[in-house]
Each structure stands twice: as C-alpha cells, then as structure tokens.
From TrEMBL:
The chain crosses the membrane at residues 45-64, 70-87, 219-238, 258-277, 599-618, 630-651, 663-685, 697-717, 724-745, 757-777. One of its GO terms (cellular component) is plasma membrane. Residues 104-198 form the P-type ATPase A domain. The keyword Zinc does not apply. NCBIfam families: ATPase_P-type (TIGR01494). It comes from Streptomyces venezuelae (strain ATCC 10712 / CBS 650.69 / DSM 40230 / JCM 4526 / NBRC 13096 / PD 04745). InterPro entries: ATPase_P-typ_cyto_dom_N (IPR023299), ATPase_P-typ_P_site (IPR018303), ATPase_P-typ_TM_dom_sf (IPR023298), ATPase_P-typ_transduc_dom_A_sf (IPR008250), ATPase_P-type_domA (IPR059000), HAD-like_sf (IPR036412), HAD_sf (IPR023214), P_typ_ATPase (IPR001757). GO terms for molecular function: ATP binding; ATP hydrolysis activity. It is a multi-pass membrane protein. Pfam families: E1-E2_ATPase (PF00122), Hydrolase (PF00702). This is Putative integral membrane ATPase.
Length: 786
C-alpha cells in the first residue's frame, strides 16, 4: 500500500485548452536547433567576397570574352554548394532535435500525457520528477519533497525546497522529489526571462577555426585594397595598351587575392560532419562543437549509463546484527513503494521485493546525489512506527565500523552495496543519519555495457586521457573500470579526500583515473582544475548531478535518455544513448579540423603569390602577366577541385591550437616562392619574345611555371600519400597537359607555348622553386614548430 491518497487537481479541460489556444496563450517558443533557411541563404550569398567578386564579374562581362568571366560561375557554384550542404545539415539537425526534444508531462482532464513544449498553454498543470526541466514559468501546485536546482539561473548550487504556492522559474530543474506546477507565463513572456538567462549563460562554443579564418580574411582585405588600387593605376595609366585588355588584366590580378573557397569549405566540412554524425544518431546542438571535440585530450565519464547500463539486479541480501530477513524484505518492499519516481538502484529493489504488507508511508525523503541516501517513515499497521534510511554505507556509517570491511570486499568485486539502516531521528532533522542502526546490506550488480571496453581502448590509443568520475564508492567504480581494462583503473581516489585547492586538485587528477563519492559541486571543480592545467575537457553525463559540470566543460556530451536539464546544456546529445558513438564523434571532429587546416594552406598560398605578383608588377611598371581565365584554370586545378576532396578525406591527427600561425607559416614561404619563380620566368620571357604576340607567349610561359610550383605545393599538402591522393594530384597535372595540347582548349584559355627554349626554362625555374619549397617547408617545421 502506498502513501495516503490526496485529492489531485485535474488540470485544464479540453474546452479550456481550446479557448486558450484561440486566444494565442500558447508556449510558441522558436526551435533552437538551427538557423532558418532564409538565414542560411543570406549568410552564403551576402558575403564580403561575393560582393567584391560580383562587381568585378559584372565589369568583365562587359569588357572581355566569356572565358575571362569563368571565375564568376565558380562563385555561383560555391554559393550553391554551401547553401545545399547547410540545408542538408539543417534538415538532419531539425529531425534529430524533434527526437531529442524534452516532452513535459501535462495533466489535462485528470489524465497525464507527454506533450511537446510548444503545446503547453497558460494555466496548464505540469507534472515534475527528478531530472525534469522546468520549461515555463509557473507556481507550485503540488510538492512531494520537491527540490529544485536554480544554479543555471542564480549561480547558487544548493537545491531549493519548494512548497505549494512558490514560484517556479523556467530553466531550473528538479534534483529530488516530485510535484506539479501551474504555468503562469508561456511563450515570449517566459522566453524573455529565459533569453536573458541564455545570453548570460549559453556561450557559443568558441571556434578557433572560425575566429582564425576571420582574422586571416581581415588581413587579406587590408593587403588587397592598396595592392588593387596600385594595380588599377599601373595598368590603366602607365601602360598605353588597349583599355579593355588593361581592365581584364587588372581584374585578373585582383580576383586570385580573394580566398573565396576557404569560407565555403569550412561551412561545407562542418555541415557534412553534422550530417554524418546525424546518421549515427548524434545531435550536434552547435556546429563548432565538432571542432571542440577534435581538440579534446581528457574525457570525464560518469560510470552509470556510460560504462554500465542503466538497469541493475539485486544479487544478495545480507541481514546485519541478527535482523530477520522476512522483516527486512517487508521494509525494502515498503521503501520501494514510498518513492513514486525510483532511481535505478531502487527500481532493482522494487523488482526483487514487491510491496505486500499493510504498511503506510507517513513521510518520505527522496534520494539526492548530494546526500547519497533516501528515507521514509512508516506506520507498520500494528501500531508500530519506524523510520528507515537506504543509501551509501560509507556515508551512513561512521569510519571504522566493522560492517565497512565486509562492504569493501564486495566493492572490490565491482558490486554496488546499499545499506538499510533504522534511525531514531525525524526525517527532516539534520542529524537523521547519526546513530542509524545498520539492518541489512543490499548487494546490487551492474550490467556492463558491451561496447564500453572498445571505446576506452580507442581513447587510450588516441592519447585521450579518460577519467571516471562517479558518485558511487571509489573501489567499486575502480573494479568496474578494471573489468573493462581501463588504463589506470587501479588508482582509485575517494573524492572526499580531494584537496580543495585547485592546483593541488589538478595534480591529483592528472595522476589518477578513477574517482568515487564525487559530489555534483566537486564534478564542476574537477572540470575547472583540469582546464587550469591546459586540458580541453569533454564531460559525459545523463543525470541531473552532471549539469553543472557539463555546462562548464569545453564540450558537454549528454545521453538522449538523460534528464532534460542535461540535454539542454550539452553541446552534443547521443540520442541512441550509446557511449560507443563517442569515438566516431571525436574522429569526425578531427577529420574536419585537420583537413581544413591543410586546405587553408592551399588557399592562402594563392593569396600570398597573387599579392606578391601584383606588387612586383606595380613596382616594375609592366603589364600584369595573367588574364582572369588563366588564374581560373590554375586555381581550379591546383586548389578548388583538390581542396574539395582533401577537405572530406579521413584524418585522424589530433587538432592542434594556433590555427592562424600553423597555416601562415607554410602559406607565406610557399606563396613567396611561387610568386618569385613566376615573376622571374615572366621577366626572362619579356626579354626573349618580341613582336605583336609577345605578351601571349610571355603569359603562357609564366602560367606554366606558376602551375608547376602550385602543383608542388599541392603535392606537399597531400602527404602522406594514399592511392587516391596520388591519383588526385596526377589527374590535375593531366588536365593541365590536356589544355596545353588540345588546340581548341589552347585558344579558349589563351595558352600556347611558343618555341622550345622558354618553355624548358620555365620548367627549370619551377623545378628550382619546388626544391626551394621542400627546403623552406622543412626549415619552417624546425624553426617554427606549431
């Protein structure tokens, strides 16, 4: 028999709900999962570079043949690809967000049902249990030892006990007990309060890649403006050649300075990452979180739900101090009945010991991870009254109690032990646990996750440290980790002995791998301590007690079946609840970052040599060697097409910091060598060729040198070689050869090698440039290690 029956409010009737919907008093909060279609199109179309290139394209359409306007079509293709990929990612995200969405339980017409958050109306009665998030503002209607954590709103970590009539704030969540509340503010009103909170607490994941690319683009713009002005003046004023040709060559000099594909590739790589992870039932709530995961070097795991499956089984009941086993079974059955929302260990007890007796629960104290025990007071039906506690033996018993030795042996086998104790104090007394009389030990066995061992070994291979942080007994957690062959499982630490000083704590954390009896506040301190030692920390969790730590970690990973509160603050939600998905998430992050770093070097080498060529042309007062069509051909073959394949290739290296520095230390020497070699060929060709077609022949020789040096940059960046990378480089070289030998392509691209001496000189200069590149690349590696 359960707690006394109390009259429960029935909630709104269907008619009242319909009336409120008609009045618009609905909780229509915008979906947070991703950008709208309009935003995506706008972000891809209206970019600084599209504006510059658009203007140049329009000019070219008027003054030159269509071949010189090809660069404009590349922009249209780029923008289109960007939009399509982001829309695919949005579709994946929105689909997953619906699966992962919190569904509060709402009571209407006396019946409780799960509804989507957007269906709640003003005045609805919303039921709450441990881990539920308060989705709208309201007022408590029923409270059964209801404890609310408002730390995300107030920063105050201690739970607040709520009584009927108290105010509820959206964004807080239940840590213990249960109840129901009436919605007093919905939609924009509650959301306004929420938005202010979100602004103060949801920092977008810091993306070094995004900020790095913006920094680079800022510098590029500063370099472009003066160089472009100089080029325009020198081509139009100094040279008295044909006006249209001068305009075409000026544009030919400005266009390649713009690394237009770099921004596109970054968003495409992120978007494809999201779609790939979506297929694995992994919801990425913020795009750059993929990047954060690639940089992670410490993963903090909770044992329950990560290494072990949620359910447990009672394997043994050991009565203590001569207690009668039949009576103990009655107590356990009644305790199971006393909690309307049992956790996993209590559920195992309910399954093992059904409630049969005429006991009446007069008062209950729900389990909380801060206390580490729960309790209930009963009237036993024969006039006897008793009060019981069930929880962690090492918390309920004084140190040195003989029962603890027995418990240690059980913990060493990885079993979970709960102590049933009888207390003489009132449940609401602060001393309720002192002097409690041990009555029985309940031994529970946890089910290990079949995939946990492989996941742990993956992290060990990848040099990612794993730390198990659990509220359970340290020895028992260590035994579970040991069964899974986790490195360092033997070094277990009881978190109650951890130093409070951050520096000292960080040292202990670095040296050990398994921590037990950790309080929610300590989890948060541990994350901060690890970060203070320069670690990038990912934290996985599914319980309410993980929220603070998840929020503070660099990347919070929540299980889909976890509480709403954890799902709301995590950047990544594993909807299939499988910890085994994590390696593929980390691998995806590494693939995206490693590849973008490579590809960025290709794009910026082009920017550097374009700016250098323009400066050299302005200083030496000669015609600009290239028409836009030449550079369109070059950048398509040496950058555009290969970059696309390289950006999506497998890549396992851990992402390293200092993106800008790591890209520029290769791009600057590469660009300078390519620019200098090309200009040297061009000057030699100017002395070599004479006559009306001299400029075309000079351009062709310079193009050959630039192509060969750029191909060498590509060949270096494509390392280490695999069959497909070699094929990619060879195919690009073959395509250029085709243009040089097929007559109509020669005409189309205005590329015709004249004579024998100059083309071979161009090849020789390119070979010298390539050798210099190899040397420079190695020297940079030694001199400026990233």
């Amino acid at each position: 028999m359960g707690p006394p029956v109390v009259h429960r409010p029935a909630g709104l009737t269907s008619a009242e709900v319909a009336e409120r919907v008609a009045r618009g008093e609905v909780n229509d909060v915008p979906v947070r999962s991703s950008r709208s279609t309009t935003d995506i199109v706008r972000a891809n179309v209206f970019t600084r570079f599209n504006a510059i290139i658009g203007v140049l394209w329009v000019i070219m359409l008027f003054v030159a043949p269509i071949q010189d306007s090809l660069f404009g079509f590349v922009i249209i293709a780029n923008t289109g690809i960007g939009i399509i990929q982001e829309l695919r990612a949005k579709k994946t995200l929105d689909g997953l967000a619906v699966i992962g969405e919190a569904k509060p339980t709402v009571r209407r017409d006396g019946v409780a049902a799960e509804l989507s958050t957007s269906e709640i109306v003003l005045g609805d009665l919303i039921e709450l249990g441990p881990g539920d998030k308060v989705v709208v503002d309201g007022e408590v209607a029923e409270a059964d030892s209801l404890e609310i954590d408002e730390s995300l709103l107030t920063g105050e970590a201690d739970p607040v006990v709520k009584k009927p009539g108290d105010r509820m704030m959206s964004g807080s969540f239940v840590v213990a007990g249960g109840g129901a509340f009436t919605a007093t503010k919905v939609g924009r009103e509650a959301y306004a309060a929420q938005l202010a909170e979100e602004a103060s607490r949801f920092t977008l994941v810091h993306s070094e890649l995004r900020t790095g690319i913006s920094t680079i683009l800022k510098y590029v713009t500063w370099m472009m403006v003066p160089t472009a002005i100089g080029l325009v003046i020198s081509q139009l004023v100094v040279k008295d050649n044909n006006f249209k040709d001068a305009v075409a060559r000026t544009v030919g000099g400005i266009v390649p300075m713009i690394p237009e594909g770099l921004v596109l590739l970054t968003s495409v790589a992120f978007a494809i990452g999201v779609v790939r992870l979506g297929r694995k039932q992994c919801l990425v709530q913020e795009l750059p979180a993929i990047e954060g995961l690639a940089r992670v070097d410490v993963v903090c795991l909770d044992k329950t739900g990560t290494l072990t499956e949620g359910g447990m089984d009672v394997t043994e009941l050991r009565p203590l101090n001569g207690a009668d086993e039949t009576y103990v079974r009655k107590v356990l059955g009644a305790l199971g009945e006393s909690d309307p929302r049992p956790n996993a260990s209590l559920q195992a007890i309910i399954d093992a010991y059904p409630d049969t007796v005429e006991w009446r629960c007069t008062e209950a104290l729900p389990f909380s991870s801060a206390r580490k025990y729960s309790g209930a007071a009963f009237s036993e039906g024969d006039g006897e009254n008793s009060t019981w506690l069930l929880g962690a033996p090492d918390v309920l018993l004084p140190a040195g109690d003989p029962a603890l030795t027995e418990i240690d042996h059980l913990n060493e086998q990885g079993l979970r032990v709960l102590l049933l104790a009888r207390t003489v104090h009132e449940l609401d007394s602060p001393e309720v646990a002192t002097g409690a009389r041990p009555t029985a030990l309940v031994v529970l066995e946890q089910r290990l996750r079949p995939d946990a061992a492989d996941t742990l070994s993956y992290f060990a291979e990848q040099n990612v440290a794993t730390k198990v942080i659990s509220g359970d007994n340290a020895v028992s957690v260590g035994a579970v980790a040991g069964k899974l062959d986790m490195p360092g499982a033997a070094n277990t630490v009881d978190a109650r002995t951890l130093p409070a000083d951050r520096e000292e704590m960080a040292k202990v954390l670095d040296e050990n791998a398994v921590f037990g009896r950790v309080t929610p506040q300590q989890k948060r301190d541990m994350v901060a301590a690890l970060q203070s030692h320069g670690h990038t920390v990912a934290m996985t969790g599914d319980g309410v007690n993980d929220v603070l730590a998840l929020k503070d970690a660099d990347i919070g990973v929540s299980m889909g079946s976890g509480s709403e509160a954890t799902r709301a603050v995590a950047q990544i939600v594993l909807l299939n609840n499988s910890f085994a998905t994590l390696p593929s998430v980390v691998a995806e992050g590494r693939r995206v970052i490693g590849n973008i770093t490579r590809v960025a070097t290709l794009f910026l080498t082009k920017t550097v040599y374009s700016v250098l060529l323009a400066v050299l042309v302005v200083c030496s007062q000669v015609e600009y060697p290239f028409l836009p069509r030449h550079l369109t051909l070059l950048s398509t073959l040496t950058i555009g097409v290969p970059a696309f394949f390289l950006a999506l290739a497998p890549n396992k290296e851990r992402a390293k910091p200092n993106f800008v520095r790591r890209v520029m230390r290769y791009a600057i020497p590469g660009g300078v060598i390519a620019g200098a070699a090309t200009f040297a060929t061009y000057l030699l060709a100017r002395h070599h060729y004479t006559g009306p077609d001299a400029l075309a022949a000079e351009t062709s020789a310079a193009t050959l040198t630039l192509f060969l040096v750029s191909m060498w940059v590509l060949a270096i960046i494509a390392r280490p070689y695999t069959w497909w990378r070699l094929t990619l480089v060879a195919a690009m070289g073959g395509a250029f050869l085709l243009v040089l030998v097929v007559p109509w392509l020669q005409d189309f691209f205005a590329l015709k090698l004249v004579g024998v001496t100059m083309p071979w000189t161009a090849v020789a200069i390119a070979a010298a440039g390539a050798a210099l590149l190899e040397f420079a690349w190695r020297w940079v590696d030694r001199r400026f290690p990233a």
